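Meet our chain:
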Amino acid sequence: MIEIRGLSRRFGDLPALAGLDLTIARGEIFGFLGPNGAGKTTTLRLLCGLLRPTTGTIRIGGIDLATNPAAARRLFAFAPDTPPLYEYLTALEHIGFVASLYGLPARVRDERAAEQLRTFGLEPYADQLCKGLSHGTRKKVHLAALLTVAPAVLVLDEPTNGLDPRSTHEFKQVLRTARDRGATVFLSTHVLAVAEAICDRVGILSGGRMLACGPIAELRASGDRSLEDVFLRVTENSAGGDVAQ
């Protein structure tokens, strides 16, 4: 579902990303990991068409993002770390509005929205303006909107930041359910426990380069007891170099 070939991005003389090659299959949860300044946010912005690459190509579902951006963007939904809500819509109105942008029929939209409100415990906030919601609740509203859309590809930047432990637990199950229905999830996170719990594969980026990529079990060396051990070992002698993270 996601094909990245020779992807690079420079900011002036500074390389933020250097020749990234990556393929992510349909129905896979892929964890995108790396220290601060590794190039993760730049990659996400390129993947969503918010930045243009210096070199390289991105295909979503076989569609070239550069030559047919509208068609490619219809296949995915993006959740940035700071949720972009419409402040003077209620939580339910925001979810419905986002779903309408993707052309969901009203009946399907309403059924899915009600399901996501229950999943994230948002029913008490359904009629409250987004303007007055806490950061964690705003995050849940935006995630609920994207999951109501049920896109083929979900691109998530630090999705569990601001979520309480119960919501994080439920969110992990939601992503597993999305994967089981065939969705592809591209997940950037610093929370290694979340990545270890749900990701089919992970990639570890540093200094704009992919240092390791594969199933966690295959990335483990002798002595690695967890994904944290793998991450620390792989990035031990590397340095970040991404101007825009």
